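Morning!

This is the sequence you dropped in the shared folder:
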Amino acid sequence: MIFYDYSKTMLKRKIDEQLKVWKANRGNSCLLVNGARQVGKTFSIRQFGRAYYKSFVEINFIESPVFQSLFDSALDSDSFVQQLKLRIPSFHLVEGSTLIFLDEIQQCPNARTALKFLSTDLRFDTIASGSLITLMSQDVPSLPVGYEKEIVMYPLSFEEYLWARGYDESIGTALKEAFVKPSILDSGLISLYTNYLNEYMMIGGMPAAVTASLEGNSWNDVKSIQENIIRLNFQDIEKYSKGFDREKIRLALDSIVSQTGDGKKSFSFAQIEKGQSRARDYRPAVEWLRKAHLVYSSASLSSFDIPLSMYAKQNENRFYLYDIGLFFSLVSGDSALLRNTILGRNWKGAAKGRFYEALAADLLHKNNHELYYYDIPQKLEIDFAIETDKAVVPLEVKSGNNKATSLIKLLSSNDSIPRGIKFTESSCGEADRILTLPLFMAAFL
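The structure's back. Tokens below.
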């Protein structure tokens, strides 16, 4: 098992505030933090426990499998506390200020069941964390329905990347003003944040990769970390894909990466193994990847009406890898020329459009938007559609400053859409119900 120590660089995460809100309003619930490996779950929970509780105990079921036997027999909260004292001499219960952290809980199904009785004991709080939790739920004897609140943690978003670079939380508030007054983004600001965005596209949001970059390590060091994380994901496929065809899962993941941004209407199962693959054979593999939080989807819409979820076409999706930096690492190979071209802002060609689509999806997904797209062959192609508190918003992503032809057609035929947004590399302005903004603003929509 490969672990990275990025404790030297304190990375502020959005989950930090979510943890505090849960603590203040937990009621009779444990917190379950789900997500892919190496996204920072353990580090954030550990820092939270040490900062906000007088007593903190951490049990990692991978590092210390001996603790799995603690849950082999029926327990109540009193006997659980007693068993902890017998196993951990330093543990002491401070009523109302104790946090018990059960890490890698997918390794101990009985511990997941135990969350039901742990949640009702108000003397201490309980947080569980792990990866592949959704996939391994079938092994849990009795799921604690109604006794756990789930949070899914992603790699660093672009806003969190800016925090890591030294900006404070006010940066989001300041940049959001551009949705109302785009003129606040002068050419200097656009250039500055586009440079940050290009860095983020190559580094991504995996904490170890971000930390290595900020500490001055070389691009090769960053890429080595990314490759190790990708290797770890493939190891998980080998280890945890019981009941599934492992080779199909690997092939499906490879195909998702190769098809991202290829201009096709939706993901083509036939392209996984040309001439051999059928959708019904590979859908379980893609669903495995989705449940493992290694990929996420954008669903095709039949109509621009609310709620968008009701107009999502079944089995028509585009898929994206869960972190843009890992996607960049897989697709770009060892091309120093590509990195230098991107950093020099001299990038052109069809590949740029593919990366920009994946980057836009990353910015929106990590900002907790459900993603949709709208495609009428030879007529309209809207890259993304999201549903906000106020409206359905169509979005087009342009790697250059091209005209948003499909967006213009959609708005002219549908008066119920207040406005659309065109994201480009550097343009800014508003005309004819189309707001044009630089792509980095998608992170703050």
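Headline: Residues 33 and 327 are 24 Å apart (CA to CA).

More detail when I'm at my desk.
O.
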